Amino acid sequence: MKRRSWMMFCSCVFGVITTWFCSSGVRAENVALGKSATTNSNWDPINQGPERAVDGSMSTLWASAGHGAPGNPLWLKVDLGQVYDLERIVLCGPDSGVYRGFTVEYILYGSRNDSQWSELGRGTLVDSPDRDLRNDEVFPTEQNGSLRYLRFDGVGGTHWTHLYELEAYPVPEPSTFVLLGMGAVGLLGFAWRWRKRAA
Ligand SMILES: [Ca+2]
After folding, report:
1. How big is the CA angle at 6 (ends 3 and 7), to the nearest 5 degrees?
2. Domains of the chain: which residue ranges?
3. Distance 165 CA to ligand 1 centre (A)
C-alpha cells in the first residue's frame, strides 16, 4: 500500500475510533446508581429500603413510614462517594395506577461535606402515567453544583413520602471534549485527503 493510502487509511481509522469513543463518553453516567443511601424513616426496610431509590429500577422504591412535613421532613440521603460537578438531578415518582393524583412535596438539598446543605430545588411529584408529572429534573446552579451528598426531604403531599429513583448526572469531563476534537480532526483529515485524491 502506498504511503498516501496508508495515511488516508490511518486517518480514517483514527477518526472513526476516537469519534466512537467520545460519543459514548459524552453520555454522562448516573453517578447515584448503586451508591450508599440512608433515611430517617422506613416503612419496610427489607422490601422498600433506601437503597431501592438508587437501584436503577422504576419498579422498586424507598417508602417512608408517613407523611413528611416542613418541620418534620422524612428524608432520603445519597452519598455519591466523591464530589461531582452535577448538571442535572432526576427525581422519579410513581405511576401506581391505584393512587393517581396523589402527591409528594419535596425539597432537594445538596452538600459537599454532609454538614452544610444548600437547597437545590423543590417541587411536587404526582402519581401519574404522565412522565412530566411524576418525574422532576433539578439543575443545580454553578455555585451549588459541586456536590457529594444529596438529600430528598419529603415535606408534604397526600402520599406517604416515597421515591422510586434518584439519578445524578455530572458535567462531562473536559478531557472528553479534547478527545472529541481529536476525533473531528481525524475525520476532517480523511475528508480532505479523499477530496484531494478525487480531484
Ligand atoms: Ca428504584
Report:
1. 90
2. 28-173
3. 5
